[in-house]
Design a protein that fits this description.
Signal peptide: 1-23
Helix content: 40-55%
Order of helices and strands: HEHEHEHEHEHEHEHEEHHEH
Organism: Ancylobacter defluvii
InterPro entries: BUG, Bug_dom1
Pfam families: TctC (PF03401)
Keywords: Signal
Radius of gyration: 22 Å
Length: 327
C-alpha cells in the first residue's frame, strides 16, 4: 500500500507539472526581455530593432531592452542567443546575414537551421549604391565605366565580413566582372563616416542607414537595388535603369528565439511582432527610411523558417563562387 501511495504521489506530481509549465507560458513575460542585435549601435539593423522593440514592449507589458553584441559579422551575437536559456527572455533580431553565415563561416559555433525558433520576418530593406559626394561619375552607367577603368584606385568600404554591405559589394563586383580594393570596417557607422569624409569612394548599404545622408547631400546616390524606384528616394534610379542587369538585393530582417523555447512563448512573441508591424508609428518611420513592414502572412514562424532555409540555399553558390570565407 505504501508503494502504491508513493507511486500515486509521484504520478500526481508529474501530471501537475504540465499545468505549471502552461501557467508559466501563459504568464509570460513577467520581466524585461533582452533583444540581441548582433551589430553596433546606430546601424541599420539596430534602427529596425529599436523601432520594433518599442512597439512590442507596449503589447507585451514588459520592456524589451536592445543589446548590441557586435563582432564576427553578426555571429557572436547570434551565437549568444543560440546558447541562451530557451525561456523567451533572450531573443535575436538579425538580418540576411543569419542565412549567409551558414556558408560564409567555416567554423560557425551554431547551426542556423536547427538552433533557433523563428518568430517571424520583420521587413525587407532596399539598398543603395552610394559614393563620396565628390566622386566624378554623374550616374550609375558612368559609375560602372569609371570603376572598370579605375579598378585599382576605387576603394569600396563595407561594415565587415558578412555584413549586408559586404554582400552587396560582392554582387556588384561580380556583376561588373571587376574587383575593387575593399576596406572592411567594424560596423556601418565608421564606414559611413569615412565615406562622408571622402576617405573611401563607394559603399552599398541599407536605406535605413543611407536615406538621411542622401537627402542631406552628404553622399552621392547612384542607384537603388530594387526593381522599382523608392517612394522615399524617387529621384534615385534602379540598377536596372543604369544598365546593371539582374541586380536586385533587399536586406530582410527576422526575429528568433533559442531552440526549445516553448511554443506558447513563441506564439506570444509572434503576436506582439505582428501587432508592431501594424503600428502606425512603425509604418511611418519605416517609410521615412525607405522600407515597410512585411505582410502579416509573411510574419509567421512557419513562413520565416522556410524562408531562411531558401535563403541559405540561394546564397551558398554565390559565396562559394566568390571564394570569400571567414573562420
Amino acid at each position: 500500500m505504501k508503494w502504491k501511495t508513493v507511486a500515486a504521489g509521484f504520478a500526481a506530481l508529474a501530471f501537475g507539472l504540465v499545468p505549471l509549465a502552461g501557467a508559466k507560458a501563459q504568464d509570460y513575460p513577467t520581466r524585461a526581455i533582452s533583444m540581441i542585435v548582433p551589430f553596433a549601435a546606430g546601424g541599420p539593423t539596430d534602427t529596425v530593432a529599436r523601432l520594433i522593440a518599442e512597439s512590442m514592449s507596449r503589447s507585451l507589458g514588459q520592456q524589451i531592452v536592445v543589446e548590441n553584441v557586435g563582432g564576427a559579422g553578426g555571429t557572436r551575437g547570434a551565437g549568444q542567443v543560440a546558447k541562451a536559456t530557451p525561456d523567451g527572455y533572450t531573443i535575436l533580431l538579425h538580418h540576411i546575414g543569419q542565412a549567409t553565415s551558414a556558408t560564409l563561416y567555416r567554423k560557425l559555433p551554431y547551426n542556423v537551421l536547427t538552433d533557433f525558433e523563428e518568430v517571424g520576418l520583420v521587413t525587407d530593406v532596399p539598398m543603395t549604391m552610394i559614393a563620396k559626394a565628390s566622386l566624378e561619375p554623374k550616374d550609375i552607367a558612368a559609375l560602372v565605366a569609371y570603376v572598370k577603368e579605375n579598378k585599382d584606385k576605387v576603394i569600396y568600404g563595407n561594415a565587415g565580413v558578412g555584413s549586408a554591405s559586404h554582400l552587396c559589394g560582392m554582387l556588384f563586383m561580380s556583376a561588373l566582372g571587376t574587383p575593387m580594393t575593399t576596406v572592411p570596417y567594424q560596423g556601418t557607422g565608421p564606414a559611413m563616416n569615412d565615406l562622408v569624409g571622402g576617405q573611401i569612394d563607394l559603399m552599398c548599404d541599407q536605406t535605413t542607414n543611407t536615406t538621411g545622408q542622401i537627402k542631406a547631400g552628404k553622399v552621392k546616390a547612384y542607384a537603388v537595388t530594387t526593381k522599382n524606384r523608392l517612394k522615399a528616394l524617387p529621384d534615385v534610379p534602379t540598377m536596372q535603369e543604369g544598365g546593371v542587369k539582374d541586380f536586385e538585393i533587399a536586406v530582410w530582417h527576422g526575429m528568433y528565439a533559442p531552440k526549445g523555447t516553448p511554443p506558447a512563448v513563441v506564439a506570444k512573441l509572434n503576436a506582439a511582432l505582428k501587432q508592431a508591424l501594424q503600428d502606425p508609428k512603425v509604418i511611418a518611420r519605416f517609410a521615412d527610411l525607405g522600407t515597410e513592414p512585411v505582410s502579416q502572412e509573411r510574419a509567421t514562424p512557419e513562413v520565416h523558417k522556410a524562408f531562411v532555409a531558401s535563403e541559405v540555399a540561394k546564397w551558398k553558390p554565390v559565396i562559394e563562387q566568390a571564394g570569400i570565407f571567414a573562420d
